[in-house]
Design brief:
alpha+beta; Beta-Lactamase; 18 helices
């Protein structure tokens, strides 16, 4: 019996309420009939079993509660239970880390109010929030800032032992907030970037595009999403190009290069692109990102700069050639001057209709043709004297035919059909010759051997028309037609552009037609072009018709020299041959000539007796002292002083020494004896 009581006491201790019930029933039953003892023992065994199960459940629940308490106390999340009063909030329980909250003051936490734990402003705000939450029935979440750190706190009311309390937990989201801020900043930067940014999934479907993508391609974001970047495919690149690109990025590497794409409207554009894979935490490719910059305009500018560099190099080369040509023309003019001068004097001393006289006439013609060549060289060198005069178009082309046929060669036919009653034009003769030569040479380059170039003239009246872009009126039309290959319609709008040429490198300057166009437009004319591939080209060049008749040549054509009054001429030229020839020519015309090869000696002679000198005839470019400088010094001694410049150079050089507008006092070599005597006579008769 004692053992039984001990067991009952143990059961009481172990099994709490269930054991008490069991003991009570046992005391009552022990007074009943012993026949019931067996049944009671069976029931007791069953109750022991149930009491053991209840104890096990109770212990398990205790363990769980203990785990939760331990988790709460040691959690990185700040957990708390507060008592909220009308004036403050007090901590009743908290996790162990609560004391490490920023701004926390003091060692303990439990039992302390907010004002004791945190700075005043933060404490006041916390208490206000606590009251608001406790007044309701729902949990509330709020973001809090404390000493530079950011927290998310969730608060909710609970009831414990009939008391309404406030429970909650606080999570430090400072790092997450910084990451979100950085992510937002990065997103704003991508959205504002001037580069196109495209992100795709591993299969290449677009998942993001920035606004620049839409600006460059014309596709809106909604139109681009879920599409493949191949919507921009231009057809410029072959399959091998794209295969290499994909092989690079699928291998985990970055691809960089230029891509020609096509926008929504079908226009091509070039992008400098960098395409990189984006990896997930497991090292697998999660996305691809492409950063691209539209370089279409940059490429265009670079190409234009490269072309300008080529044009500059070509222009510099042509300038060098031009200087050489100008120098050759100057020296050749001096030689021609001697030839023409001696020929004129020889003609004066021979009888007409004799073999010698006829031979001299041929020599003179040849020298005049050579002089024409030198003028063309000076035209090419841009050193020609630009002097407008009345030009008989038909006669001028007649005189050029022999030279033009030599220029195009014997394997090309040149047909010339002059029009009737063709008006004159007001144009520099060198420029007109240059136009004809350039147009014929251009036609020659377009025809095959056996081809035909046709020249013709006509007079026409042009009414006001946008097609011609010139003043209405009467015009002389020079037509140049060839039966060559014609001009591609894609380039016909560029044929007058400077340096534009379809010829192979080294076979054309691209200046011929542009020079012609510039001269014609400056003269108030225009050019019309009609061309069909494989059917030839027609250039119609319109010059304003002159209202004046062609000027007659003052000097006689038969070489007869004007009479003189025996005036004294101081002749200065550093070319001895020209000096000697000119001296003899002037003396044969009746002038008294004092000749010298240097300006220094001429100044000495002039200073000795200036009144005896009636006129000074001088070269322009001479060693030591130039002709213009010499004249300036003489004018100080004797103003005014009659003077005449003779030079193998032209107006550009004279302009540099202030003589460009001094037409009456300048004559260009080579000149005939008659022209020289006429000019000297004009100078002497002038009233300067």
């Amino acid at each position: 019996m004692t053992t039984l009581y001990i067991l009952l006491l143990l059961a009481l201790a172990l099994f709490a309420p269930a054991a008490i019930i069991l003991l009570s029933r046992y005391i009552v039953l022990r007074h009943k009939n012993r026949d019931e003892t067996s049944a009671l023992r069976q029931e007791l065994a069953s109750m022991r079993k149930n009491a053991g199960y209840a104890a096990q459940v109770s212990r398990t629940q205790y363990d769980k509660n203990d785990m939760l308490v331990q988790a709460m106390r040691r959690s990185p999340i700040y957990v708390f239970v507060k008592e909220v009063t009308e004036t403050t909030s007090r901590i009743l329980a908290s996790s162990e880390n609560y004391k490490h909250l920023p701004g926390h003051r003091g060692a303990g936490v439990t039992g302390r109010i907010m004002e004791e734990l945190f700075p005043p402003d933060f404490a006041a705000q916390t208490v206000a929030n606590d009251r608001a939450v406790l007044a309701g029935d729902k949990a509330q979440m709020m973001e809090e800032e404390l000493e530079g750190q950011t927290f998310i706190t969730t608060k909710f009311p609970i009831v414990s032992n009939g008391r309404r309390l406030l429970a909650g937990f606080t999570i430090d989201i400072t790092e997450r907030k910084l990451a979100e801020t950085e992510r937002e900043l990065l997103m704003r930067a991508i959205e504002a970037a001037s580069e196109t940014v495209v992100i795709t999934d591993p299969e290449g479907s677009i998942v993001y595009v920035n606004p620049t993508f839409s600006a460059v391609t014309g596709y809106t974001r909604d139109e681009a999403l879920a599409q493949n970047p191949r919507i921009l495919k231009s057809g410029v690149h072959d399959a091998n190009f794209y295969n290499k690109l994909w092989a690079t990025i699928l291998n985990g590497d970055t691809w960089s290069g230029q891509i020609v794409n096509k926008n929504k409207n079908g226009a091509l554009f070039t992008e400098q692109a960098t395409i990189s894979p984006i990896f997930d935490n497991n090292g697998n490719i999660a996305n691809f990102v492409a950063v691209k910059r539209d370089i279409t305009e940059q490429i265009r500018i670079a190409q234009e700069n490269a072309l300008l560099q080529e044009q500059l190099a070509q222009a510099q080369k042509m300038e060098s050639v031009g200087r050489l040509a100008g120098g050759i023309a100057h020296d050749f003019n001096n030689m021609l001057q001697a030839i023409m001068g001696y020929t004129d004097m020889a003609l004066e001393s021979t009888e007409p209709n004799t073999n010698v006289h006829d031979d001299l006439i041929e020599i003179k013609k040849a020298s005049e043709q050579a002089a024409t060549l030198t003028r063309q060289l000076q035209t090419f060198a841009r050193k020609e004297a630009v002097t407008r005069k009345i030009i008989d178009v038909n006669s001028t082309i007649d005189e050029m035919l022999a030279m033009l046929r030599r220029l195009i060669g014997t394997d090309v036919n040149l047909h010339w059909t002059p029009g009737d009653n063709i008006a004159n034009v007001d144009l520099d003769s060198g420029h007109f010759n240059q136009i004809v030569v350039n147009m014929v040479v251009n036609a020659r380059d377009a025809v095959e051997p056996g081809g035909v170039i046709s020249l013709s003239t006509s007079t026409t009246h042009i009414a006001e028309s946008p097609e011609h872009e010139i003043t209405p009126g009467c015009y002389v039309c020079l037509s140049v037609h060839d039966n060559g290959s014609g001009i591609d319609q894609n380039i016909i709008g560029h044929i007058f552009d400077p340096f534009f040429t379809t010829k192979p490198l080294g076979q054309g300057t691209g200046l011929g037609l542009s020079v012609v166009y510039g001269i014609v437009k400056q003269a108030g004319g225009t050019i019309q072009v009609t061309s069909n591939e494989n059917k030839g080209t027609l250039f119609e060049i319109y010059f304003p018709a002159s209202k004046e008749d062609k000027e007659e040549t003052v000097a006689s054509e038969n070489g007869t020299l004007c009479t003189t009054k025996g005036e004294t001429v101081l002749l200065v030229d550093d070319e001895a041959a020209v000096l000697k020839m000119t001296q003899r020519l002037l003396e044969s015309a009746g002038y008294k000539v004092i000749a010298t090869t240097t300006a220094t000696e001429a100044l000495t002679i002039f200073e000795a007796d200036p009144q005896t000198i009636d006129i000074v005839v001088s070269d322009v470019v001479m060693p030591e002292i130039s002709g213009p400088e010499m004249i300036k010094r003489m004018l100080i001694i004797k103003p005014p002083l009659k003077h005449l410049f003779i030079s193998g150079h032209t107006a550009n050089l004279l302009e540099n020494v202030g003589l460009a507008n001094d037409k009456i006092n300048c004559i260009q070599k080579p000149f005939s004896a008659a022209v020289l005597i006429q000019k000297i006579s004009e100078c002497l008769d002038s009233h300067d």
